Amino acid sequence: MDDQSTSDLMIQANDLTHFYGPQPAIEDVNFGVKKGEILGFLGPNGAGKTTTMRIITGYMPPTQGKVTLADYDVVEQSLDVRKRIGYLPETVPLHTEMQVTNYLKYMGTLRGMPSRLIKRRIGEVIEVCRLQDYHKTIIGKLSKGFRQRVGIAQAILHEPEVLVLDEPTIGIDPIQVVETRQLIRDLRSERTVVLSSHILPEVNVICDRVLIIHEGRIVAEDSPSNLAQRLQGVDQLQVEVGGPVQQVLAALRGVPGVTEVTHRNQQGRNIFIVQVQRGQDLRDEISRVVVSNEWSLLSMQLVSMSLEDIFLRLTTHEEL
Question: Dmax of the chain from CA atoms?
């Protein structure tokens, strides 16, 4: 983690390890989550994401290590933690025979909320989760996407400081995926959010920071954009030039600081990917080379490594 005061942290996990039988599901996992942050756990199925979510929420204790939430120990002070956390597991345990409103009332009662507060909060979460047209519908008759919304509604009903979402968009249609992602972003103004996903674009568009977990260990941690810069090792420029391909390649490769140039034809356009040593801004030099050869410089833009590229490099043990 980067340097930050522990007072800024809503969640702090230290040396988390959990065994199922002889094999660790997670091992020596350390991370912190700042107040108001959206943190994403990204990893393939079986990487240890769900195990970590269950430990954070107090669903099960770690074999080793410790987690605190708002300075409460999730094992020793479980009830204090549960008052401050909302949890949407991967498989939402909804009572499918109940109407949406009745289910939310039932969940509020289980949490010990006063009846007046339950009534107010049901109206608020139904509006936030856009369930106005379905509040009297039997849950079993709702689509998977709307069941997810009901699951999020119950998770925020008691106004928790932290929201933990395990694969929140799995199995729902593309339109509802977009709507659910927007709902999660809207919730950030009031609480800290931790979510897990194996879907690369999901953490890229939702999260402030990403932890990439593989085989039970965290292999990278940063913002999506910073991960790209840190792991790429070089900067890339995408340059479109109107000129003879081989001559342009030779000229661009001759610019000091350029490490490699490749070419691709994109619908009749000559695109050159120019790799540059990190920290060097060679846009002026490249522009001068193109113009001095009387070629047309049609566009130039910085190209970052995608989160998918990062993920593949880290989880296939390639050299960085």
Answer: 78
Rounded Cα gap, residues 89 and 93, in angstroms = 8
- Residue 18: which residues within 8 A CB-CB, separation 6 or more? 24, 25, 26, 51, 55, 60, 62, 63, 64
Region of residue 199 (left: phi > 0; alpha: psi -120 to 50; beta: else) = beta
The tens digit of pLDDT for each residue in 27-50 reads: 999 999 999 899 999 888 888 999
Q: Is the model more confident about 227 or about 11? A: 11
Question: Averaged over 39-63, what is the pLDDT?
Answer: 92
Query: Does 7 have pLDDT greater than 70?
Result: no
Closest CA to 211 of 17, 36, 1, 60: 1
Secondary structure (H, E, C), the chain: CCCCCHHHEEEEEEEEEEEECCEEEEEEEEEEEECCCEEEEECCCCCCHHHHHHHHCCCCCCCEEEEEECCEECCCCHHHHHHCEEEECCCCCCCCCCEHHHHHHHHHHHCCCCHHHHHHHHHHHHHHCCCHHHCCCEHHHCCHHHHHHHHHHHHHCCCCCEEEEECCCCCCCHHHHHHHHHHHHHHCCCCEEEEEECCHHHHHHHCCEEEEEECCEEEEEECHHHHHHHHHCEEEEEEEEECCHHHHHHHHHCCCCEEEEEEEEECCEEEEEEEEECCCCCHHHHHHHHHHCCCEEEEEEEECCCHHHHHHHHHCCCCC
Segment 134-147, tens digit of pLDDT: 999 999 999 999 99
d(CA 300, CA 284): 11
Identify the bridge partners of residue 190 per DSSP, sorted by sequence position: none
**What is the residue-averaged pLDDT of the chain?**
88
Domains (range + CATH), the chain: 6-229 (3.40.50.300), 233-304 (3.30.70.1340)
Name the band, by pLDDT with cuts 50, 70 and 90, for residue 129.
very high
> Look-up: residue for tokens 């910085």?
302
